[in-house]
Write a structure and sequence with these properties.
Distance between the termini: 45 Å
Number of helices: 6
Helix content: 40-55%
Radius of gyration: 17 Å
Strand content: under 5%
Order of helices and strands: HHHHHH
Shape: globular
Mean pLDDT: 86
Low-confidence stretches: none
Largest sheet: none
């Protein structure tokens, strides 16, 4: 099943009575861009995280359920080495032995 994330975000906005200008502020964008987002069928993960938090709705769960149906499993917990590799240089100091 294809997930049309823009349509799902729009449906959740309607369910909660949230208009585009109200969503725009917590996701650091404009009202016009919110309208563009809900026209899309895919989305950047960072943006989806902001929208999920703003609407207090875990949109990632939809993708997780779909992946489980396809036999995919959750990744292993990241190790300290993996975390240090993905952090910005100024954040790495907290993980240095």
């Amino acid at each position: 099943m294809e997930i049309n994330i823009g349509k799902l975000i729009e449906e959740e906005m309607k369910r909660q009575g949230v208009k585009a200008p109200k969503l725009a502020n917590p996701i650091f964008t404009t009202r016009t861009n919110v309208y563009n987002i809900i026209k899309r069928d895919s989305i950047d993960t960072k943006l989806l995280m902001l929208i999920s938090r703003a609407l207090k709705t875990n949109f990632f769960a939809l993708y997780a359920k779909e992946m489980e149906k396809e036999g995919c499993h959750e990744p292993a917990e990241p190790t300290t080495d993996m975390l240090a590799f993905t952090l910005q240089d100024d954040e790495k100091e907290f993980f240095v032995d």
